[in-house]
Amino acid sequence: MRHEEFKTHHPLHIMKINEFKIISLQPWWVKFYSNNPETDNLLILYRDHPELKKKIIDFLTCFVKTNEFKYIFNAYCSRCGNCCKRDNIIVQGGEIFFIALQLCMTEKEFYSKYLYPTSSWSDYDGIIRLVNGKCPFLEIKSSGRYNCTIYNNRPASCRFFYPASDLCKKEDSDLIEQIKSIDIKDGKLTVTLISGCPYNILLNEELIKKMTHILSYLEGIETKKTHQVNELIRHMVEPEQEEDKSGQDFSEENVLEKELHKKNHLFAIKNFFLKEILFTPMTMILTYDIDEREYNFFINYAQDDLILEQMRTFTETLIGFIKEYNINIFKQSWTVCHMCGNCCGENIIEIEPSDIRRLAEHFKITVKKFKKKYMEPGRYGWNPEGGCIKKFLDKKTGRNICAFLEKKETDLSYCKVHQVKPELCSNYTPGIYKCLKNKSNDYNFRLISNIQNIYLNTEILKVNIISNYVINNEDLYIEWRKYNNIRDNIQSILESLKNYLHKKYFSL
Fold first, then answer.
1. 127: closest CA among 155, 166, 98, 167?
2. If we measure between CA atoms, which residue out of 94, 125, 95, 106 comes closest to residue 409?
């Protein structure tokens, strides 16, 4: 059938596959892009060819059911809610603040109501208490799908959950919906998702057969030409022959390289050579060699109390190092106020007459009485009617703090005049050199929560910062052997880890 509105001037049966540079299967039609610039592109609507639509649906259904292609749909969440029914959803200390703020609770109230302690690298972290077998922040909709009521402030363990996990339940229709197009070009088959990610794929025999049926229908060939199309499809999907690498190199340079490789390890137990460790909040992933073959092994910190204690000491030391030498790595994590109160204690708060009048009206007293009770003479401003807010000694911290700063049972600081605070306070920008900068204070957990994982090999310690906070997506690299505190902490962990492995796996 012809479709003048799409500039289709030729019936399909005279079109040959090799006349087109791209054949694109899309949700509503098949589009052919011609090799000849003088020839119009061809577009065929599924509504005009029910049999073609049936064959394409058959191919797509088989495609999304094939295990080897499940990785393609990693980024897609079907809102099945199964990941929210895990019993190990960790909320890190720095994340508690934002969730508690959304729920109009203090951090302490949030922790006691929704969390219980866990064995992670920070003792401020907690595990979400499940209610009836699911996360208390999970909300079911009339469609049977789930929503997260704290989605914008959800913890990193949720944000970085792997959607291709076996926990995830994805309907075939959900997966098909994610496919934007399937293109055949230059002997390759490319699947493009609605996210824009293209994947060049190799098909198995069953899918080759189904694609053959589609192309056979499109070209309108007879049964005797099926073999020809089959060969065309095989040419599209068979991988290029790779250079034979079965031979082994026994040259002197290669032997020396292998010997050097054996020495490049953190420690060894018999024929076990530990090469690398990836630390995450609750586990470490070991990469090791046995007989020149590489393996991975997971260890929970909770499996050994000494390792857990040393990990917490190590992360505190690492945060102290970052504060002192590389604090810029966390620059963007101070886009909001963490209510630490440092700006209200260390800074001189000199305010203008309009601020004084507004505050006096808030307290329902005269300007004269307000100045007498809360103000000191100005120090820097040129306005003679201005002045500085008085500071009072905080018995809990031993620091001088603003007269309007209120410390409650939690570690948060509240401003009594927040709604009418001075212009100077309104314009204050939280920053790394002003907020949480005292290395002896108890705010390390806020910085630890910005760390996604820590990678360790024989020379380098790489700190991976959560992408939302990192500057120019650069991670922090530390030559850990050059810094005594970090080196001592790492060596203590390695020694404990070696003893743990030796006792549990090598002492038999």
1. 155
2. 106
Tokens describing residue 157: 């363990």
Give the count of alpha carbons within 13 A of 434, CB side only.
Answer: 17
Q: How confident is the model at residue 35 (pLDDT cuts 50, 70, 90)?
A: low
pTM above 0.90, yes or no: no
The answer on pLDDT for 221 being more than 50 is no
53, 46 contact by CB (below 8 A): yes
- How many CA atoms lie within 13 Å of 428's alpha carbon, on the beta-carbon side? 25
Say how far apart CA 369 and CA 360 lie, in whole Å: 8
Phi, then psi, of 392 in degrees rounded to 5: -125, 150
d(CA 208, CA 335): 52
CA distance 423 to 355: 7
Which band of pLDDT confidence, cut at 50, 70 and 90, is reported for residue 264? confident
Query: Is residue 397 within 8 Å of 292, Cβ to Cβ?
Result: no
DSSP state string for 148-162: ETTGGG--HHHHT--
Q: Is-contact 180 193, C-beta < 8 A? A: yes
Q: What angle do CA 208, 210, 212 make, to 5 degrees?
A: 70
Average pLDDT, the chain: 75
Strand partners, 90: 127
Long-range contacts, stretch 299-305, CB < 8 angstroms, 24+ apart: 299/497, 299/500, 300/119, 301/119, 301/120, 301/121, 302/118, 302/119, 303/500, 304/496, 304/500
* CA distance to 192, 193, 322, 375, per residue, from 53 (Å): 19, 19, 59, 79
Q: The tokens of 20 are what?
A: 């087109």
Sign of CA dihedral 384, 386, 392, 394: negative
Residues in the chain: 508
- Percentage of the chain beyond pLDDT 90 is 11
Residues linked to residue 182 through DSSP beta bridges, in sequence order = 25, 191
Domain ranges in the chain are 4-74+173-237, 82-169, 279-331+443-506, 339-426
Q: What is the pLDDT of residues 425-436, one digit of tens each?
A: 887 776 655 565
The Cβ of residue 26 has, within 10 Å, a number of other Cβ atoms equal to 16
Q: How far apart are the first and last CA of the chain?
A: 76
Token reading at 31 = 């589009």
For residues 164 and 73, is the Cβ–Cβ distance under 8 A?
yes
